[in-house]
């Protein structure tokens, strides 16, 4: 059965794609997968086709991403995903017992859903909360220090329609509601994000610092952070002060240099200036580059499309085309476009590359808010591949 996604989902998809540069729209794939999961409760084949349609990819490329991350579910999932940590620390503290008790109580195993569609149970390798073990999460919100009885109490309250409050984090929501947030949209429930608070083990270090009067030497939390202009001004003043403190260079004497017998020294010796104060270094002076990060300087000197590719830092090198000259601006983009044109996607089974035309077409249709030919997700994907 093919799912027709709602107008709201399509509008949100356009919002997600608009967050990224037009030629990098495939970066929107991760939030788009959360978006389709928010509507269906899992990433279905129709959801994969939808993402491929709006991004100009083929379904094999989308499926490769959807099957890599465990947060994307490939079969219908309950309203509440209950994850129990069974890794080393939580296991030693009783995590496996919690999981086994829940599996017997609910009558399901790993990655299985109760008959009423309320709860999907899974064991997790690690939930990154060892100091709160054993832990379990409900739709990724934490319940700390659980045991078999408290875990059963949580799932029973969920099945009865309640929303138990997590130990840490905001108020519980359904898996579909959580997927909307993971797609990058705010929780619209009134006061939902105001609930919860930090756990005591997290605050233990702060408590000890307060108890023993430990603080960073000279730290004043009320000290304002200087703006870039203020920092640049302070640096310039410090540099000027350092320059003023340097000793004046010793100038060469205009009088001829006499030899030991009183005769004039050979021509050329008189013109030699006396050396400046020795620094103990034999390295040549290197002009300080502009106020740029090392990453920016390196990228500008390595990227021919940067315009004037001039090395401005030691160790950087302008690439050449084999003749000793730097390529003209735009060559990199032309080469990339030629490679894409020669490696177009052949079918869903061959993720050879992105089709630039399909991306541009879908972005244009997304801006207009309409589907140009009225084709469904699968038809549009196949049409784009043929073009």
Structure description:
The protein is flat. The protein has helices at 7-17, 29-40, 45-55, 59-66, 88-92, 95-106, 148-159, 175-182, 200-212, 228-245, 294-302, 331-341, 356-368, 377-386, and strands at residues 80-85, 112-113, 119-124, 136-138, 141-143. Residues 268-279, 306-314, 349-353 and 380-385 have low confidence and may be disordered. The chain is built from 14 helices and five strands. It has a five-stranded mixed β-sheet with strand order 2-3-1-4-5. A hairpin with a 2-residue loop joins strand 4 and strand 5 (141-143). It is mainly alpha-helical and 387 residues long.
Number of strands: 5
Note the total helix count: 14
Q: Please tell me how large the radius of gyration is.
A: 33 Å
Shape: flat
Give the helix proportion (percent range): 25-40%
Low-confidence stretches: 268-279, 306-314, 349-353, 380-385
The termini sit apart by: 26 Å
Please state the structural category.
mainly alpha
Order of helices and strands: HHHHEHHEEEEHHHHHHHH
Q: What topology, given as strand order, has the largest sheet?
A: 2-3-1-4-5
What does the average pLDDT come to?
A: 76
Largest sheet: 5 strands, mixed
Strand content: 5-15%
Quickly describe the structure:
The protein is mainly alpha-helical and 387 residues long.
Keywords, separated by commas or semicolons:
387 residues; flat; disordered C terminus; 40% helix; five-stranded mixed beta sheet
């Amino acid at each position: 059965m093919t799912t027709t996604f709602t107008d709201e989902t399509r509008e949100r998809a356009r919002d997600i794609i608009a967050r990224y540069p037009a030629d990098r729209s495939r970066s929107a794939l991760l939030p788009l997968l959360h978006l389709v999961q928010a509507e269906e409760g899992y990433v279905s084949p129709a959801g994969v086709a939808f993402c491929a349609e709006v991004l100009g990819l083929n379904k094999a490329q989308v499926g490769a991403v959807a099957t890599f991350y465990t947060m994307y579910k490939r079969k219908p999932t309950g309203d509440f995903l209950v994850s129990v940590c069974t890794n080393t620390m939580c296991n030693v503290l009783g995590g496996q017992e919690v999981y086994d008790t829940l599996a017997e109580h609910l009558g399901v195993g790993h990655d299985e859903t109760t008959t009423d569609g309320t709860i999907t149970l899974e064991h997790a390798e690690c939930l990154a909360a060892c100091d709160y073990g054993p832990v379990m999460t409900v739709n990724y919100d934490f319940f700390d220090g659980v045991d078999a009885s408290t875990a059963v109490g949580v799932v029973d309250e969920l099945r009865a329609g309640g929303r138990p409050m997590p130990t840490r984090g905001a108020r519980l929501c359904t898996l579909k509601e959580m997927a909307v947030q993971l797609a990058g949209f705010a929780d619209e429930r009134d006061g939902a994000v105001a609930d919860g608070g930090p756990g005591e083990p997290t605050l233990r270090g702060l408590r000890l610092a307060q108890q023993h009067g430990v603080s960073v030497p000279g730290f004043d939390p009320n000290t304002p952070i200087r703006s870039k202009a203020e920092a640049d001004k302070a640096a310039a003043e410090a540099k000027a002060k350092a320059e003023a403190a340097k000793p004046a260079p010793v100038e060469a004497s205009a009088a001829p240099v006499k030899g030991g017998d009183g005769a004039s020294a050979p021509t050329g010796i008189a013109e030699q200036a006396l050396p400046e104060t020795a620094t103990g270094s034999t390295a040549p002076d290197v002009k300080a580059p502009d106020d740029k990060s090392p990453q920016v300087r390196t990228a500008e000197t390595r990227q021919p499309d940067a315009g004037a590719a001039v090395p401005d830092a030691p160790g950087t090198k302008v690439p050449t085309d084999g003749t000793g000259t730097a390529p003209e601006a735009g060559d990199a983009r032309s080469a990339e476009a030629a490679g894409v044109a020669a490696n177009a996607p052949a079918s869903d089974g061959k993720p050879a590359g992105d089709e630039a035309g399909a991306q541009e077409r879908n972005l244009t249709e997304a801006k207009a808010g309409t589907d140009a030919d009225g084709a469904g997700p699968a038809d549009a994907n196949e049409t784009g591949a043929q073009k």
